[in-house]
Predict the 3D structure of the following.
Amino acid sequence: MVTMAINSTTPASTVKGVPIVSYESETTVERVAEAKLPTEFGEFRISGYRSLISDEEFVVLARGQLRPERPTLARIHSQCLTGDVFGSTKCDCGQQLREAMRLIAKEGSGVIVYQQQEGRGIGIINKIRAYALQDAGADTVEANERLGLDVDLRRYEQCAEILRDLGIRRVRLISNNPDKLHAIKDGGLVLVERVPLAVKFHRSFSRYLRTKRARMGHLIDIPGGTLPELGAVAEIS
C-alpha cells in the first residue's frame, strides 16, 4: 500500500466532520479482502477497502494487469441502489455501471471504485424522500434543498487513494462529473483522458439529465442541445 509523508505540524481540516486528506498525507484506506468475481462481462477481481477515518467501505472491481506507466481505464461509481440493483429509469446510473464494466472487459484491463455514498451522500431513506418530491414536480437539486440537505455530499479523495494503492498513476476516467475529474488530478494522478459512455435514453430520466447538465455542471454532450427520443442511444460524456 502506498504511504505518503505526513506533516504533523499542519492541523487537520474537516468537511461534515470527515478529515480532508490530500495525497501528501497519511494512508487513510486499507485493503481488507480480495476474491475472484465471475460476471456477465467475464471475470473480475473484487476487493474490499475500509476507510481508516470514517465508517465508509469501498468495493473495487479490477481486471487485467494494472501498471503505473500505462493509462488505465477507470471509473469512480457512487452507489445507486435503485439504479444499479433495481433497474430504475429515474437515472442512468445502472446503465453507466454496466457500460463501464463492458468497456473494461473489452479493453482487457481497468478498475471500478464503487463508493458507498448513496443518493449523492444523503442515504437511501432520504433519497426515497427526495423521490417523492420529484414525483410532485421538483428536480433532483430542488428535492434535496426542500429536505434541507446538501445537493452533493460526495467526496472522492479516498477513491483516488485506492487507485494509487492499486499501482495506478495514469488514468483514463469514465465520467461526466467534473468533481471526479478534479479529484483524480488533486489526488496525485495524471488524468490522460475522459472517456464518454453511451446509454440507452429513457424519457423518465430526461429532466434528470437536464438538471445535471444545467445545475450541476456535468459534462453531458447532447448533439444539437436536445435530448434524443425514447429508445435512442445518448452519449453521456
In short: The radius of gyration is 18 Å.
